[in-house]
Amino acid sequence: MSDDATQDTFIKFYENIRKFDLDRPLKPWLYKIAKNTSFDLIRKNKKIVKLEWDVASDKEEQIENVIKNENRHMVRKAVKKLPDKYKRPIMGYYFKDMDYKSLSKELKLPINTLRTRLRRAKIELEKLLIRNG
Fold this sequence. Notes:
Arc Repressor Mutant, subunit A, mainly alpha
């Protein structure tokens, strides 16, 4: 069932990636998609699903943690395949939560070039994830 949640999450991610606002961090957006997808699957398969919670007291938090760990591995694997000119902006912006100004300074790039590379990186990342998903 976690495979279904992961697959459905990334399908929704791919279908809506162009709607994503580059001025906002990716993680919360992706986690929200994953959380909602998981809850939809749980509601849909309520009869056959029995979840046991042993660590976290908050069930929603535990679901988010499981999905986050599975998805993080897939996304990081795809990001590693990107060319450096795309990988570095993606890593800085989405994984280190750096803003445009800081990242632009660190990478020694004009902000508009950074935005272009982030946009192109998302397109390439989408292709990689679809191909390998």
